[in-house]
Design brief:
By secondary structure, the protein is an alpha/beta fold. Strand 6, helix 9 and strand 7 form a beta-alpha-beta unit. Bound molecules: nicotinamide-adenine-dinucleotide (NAD). Nicotinamide-adenine-dinucleotide binds next to helix 10 and helix 11.
Length: about 550
């Protein structure tokens, strides 16, 4: 079966024939960047950088570059504004998110255009970002009052000690985002930080700046008070670093190698950091899985945003009993995927974001091919569609000698591995330094859960690739091992932006031996008290 697939792949059905025409021009209304640039902290004579669209490689706008002095001014203004914001009730702060939720949905077409123009992704993949932002708004607007409310705990001496746990905002949060999700990764980490009573200095990636600025404009419109959220633009190693070096808490999303540097710098200042880093995510299809559903989901999970998604699947682990059947469905579907540079709906996959990404993806595939891997589908760049297009690619026979075996490709390339048992599949899924996302397919959901619980990843989806866990905003999301530190979403995703405090009030007997009582007798009665508390299950 594998040989047959390999043979067919040499006469690959290029998706070009199925490419729909692209009616939309790949441009941005020239008045718009000038308006958006007003939201950037930068001097009037600031240097400028070009925003390119991957659809053509052409310049669609220029935006100002901030300096370290601009970052300092942003922090000063944010520090001034933050205490007034923190003094407002959580419910009041959360209302901004409810209005933002509606604005993002209302302006979705315009946001989708910007996301697509900046990232080159297909519209349906851009739409995942809209859903993500709306979901985060709804979740934290509704749940923040509960996550942040003071909680009473049993005191040291029951009834006489009253202890409560409080959560104070940390101050100003520094957020540095990547380019792959220009809306979602620029704004969703700032939202819980703001609801928790902090101010934010945000440095979106240069390739995500137009979308991020429009997202911030809408947040202003939703009623976020002035000076609570500052945007600075510029290279990560200068402007990004300056933002994180001044933060009261660091929120960073990007590669593991940069994440290590960011973590070291935060540690040197003794400030906390949440790091959302890379992955080499595996999907296991067990012998009893619904193969059609699994194959359809694998297409989305491997090639959403052209695989430039931290939680996308790069390793397909197939039970040997169903491997050929699964591949028949999966490879056939991959070969007929439509690629295109259009703003319309209906395209299956867009472009890579840059020449560097194309270079990395091509290098991984060529290295695997040269060392003997079989290309079951794809395996070529598609310059006739746009300068950085690359086909969705399926490889088999990947070995330890090949770069794509362990390194994150961060592109539309998935490798297939065959196993003989669940145990082997779990060992294979865990055989990586990363631990971000995983997926397990079985019609027996109890078996699926049991396998999932043994995969060492921050999120594992049963009978889904990534959206089930990513979109469940009440549960934490993030990486184990080299995939990161800290979590977004759920209680952890907002409490990390707070300093917790224990305020305990003592009434009556202070902690001392009462007058006239021998110390030994006092100790005996205290020990009896401890046993009693254990006996009546006080905790
Ligand atoms: P990268 O680490 O090269 O850059 C990420 C961002 O950090 C960029 O905006 C960059 O300019 C900035 N940066 C670089 N050096 C910096 C420094 N010293 N201080 C502060 N900022 C700095 O990563 P990339 O290749 O641009 O992004 C892709 C990576 O991000 C992949 O590994 C992907 O898995 C990861 N990612 C992870 C998540 C997640 O949630 N876990 C989400 C998206 C992307």
């Amino acid at each position: 079966m594998t040989d047959q697939l390999a043979q067919e792949s040499r006469a690959i059905v290029r998706p070009a024939a199925a490419n729909p025409p692209s009616p939309a021009p790949h441009t941005v209304d020239p008045t718009r960047p000038a308006r958006l640039a007003r939201r950037v902290r930068a001097g009037t004579n600031a240097a400028r950088f070009d925003c390119l669209t991957p659809f053509t490689g052409g310049v669609i706008a220029t935006l100002p570059v901030s300096t370290v002095a601009d970052v300092e001014q942003a922090y000063a203004a944010a520090r001034e504004a933050q205490p007034r914001w923190a003094a407002r009730s959580v419910a009041d702060r959360a209302r901004v998110l409810l209005r933002y939720h509606d604005l993002v949905l209302r302006h979705r077409d315009e946001l989708l255009d910007l996301i697509q123009l900046e990232s080159g992704k297909a519209r349906r993949h851009a739409f995942e970002e809209i859903l993500d932002v709306a979901g985060i708004c709804r979740h934290y607007a509704r749940k923040a009052p509960d996550y942040l409310r003071p909680r009473k705990h049993l005191g040291a001496i029951p009834l006489l000690t009253q202890s409560s746990e409080l959560h104070h905002p940390r101050g100003v949060i520094g957020v540095v985002g990547p380019w792959n999700y220009p809306l979602s990764m620029s704004i969703t980490d700032a939202l819980p930080a703001l609801v928790a009573g902090n101010a934010v200095v945000l440095r979106p990636d240069e390739k995500a700046s137009l979308t991020a600025l429009r997202a911030v404009e809408l947040l202003d419109q939703a009623g976020l008070p002035k000076d609570l959220l500052h945007v600075v633009l510029g290279p990560g190693q200068t402007v990004g670093e300056a933002v994180l070096d001044r933060a009261d808490y660091v929120m960073y999303t990007g590669s593991t190698s940069t994440g290590r540097t960011v973590a070291q710098r935060a540690a040197a200042r003794l400030v906390g950091a949440s790091l959302e880093l890379g992955g080499k995510n595996a999907m296991y299809v067990a012998d009893d899985a619904d193969l059609r559903r699994a194959a359809e989901s694998a297409v989305r999970s491997c090639f959403s945003s052209a695989g430039q998604l931290c939680i996308s699947i790069e390793r397909l682990i197939l039970h040997e009993w169903i491997a050929d059947d699964f591949l028949k469905h999966f490879v056939a579907r991959v070969r007929t995927m439509t690629l295109g540079a259009g703003l319309e709906w209906g395209i299956d996959m867009g472009s890579l974001i840059s020449a560097q990404q194309l270079e990395r993806v091509s290098q991984h595939v060529e290295d695997a091919r040269a060392k003997g891997a079989t290309v079951l589908a794809g395996g070529h760049a598609r310059p006739e569609l746009g300068p950085w297009f690359y086909e969705p690619t399926v490889l088999e026979g990947v070995t330890e000698a090949m770069d794509c075996r362990r390194a994150e490709t961060f592109g539309p390339v998935v490798s297939v591995y065959r196993v003989g048992s669940d145990e082997e599949a779990i060992a294979m899924a865990n055989d990586t330094d990363y631990g971000l996302n995983g997926s397990v397919w079985s019609k027996d959901t109890r078996r699926g859960r049991r396998i999932a619980e043994r995969i060492r990843c921050g999120t594992v989806n049963v009978n889904e690739g990534y959206i089930a866990a990513w979109g469940s905003n009440g549960s934490p999301m993030g990486g184990m091992r080299e995939s990161g530190l800290g979590r977004r979403h759920g209680a952890e995703g907002i409490l990390k932006y707070t300093e917790s405090q224990n305020v305990s009030v003592q009434r009556g007997t202070p902690f001392k031996v009462p007058p006239g009582v021998p110390e030994k007798a006092w100790a005996r009665s205290m020990a009896t008290g401890m046993r009693l508390m254990k006996g009546i299950r006080l905790s």
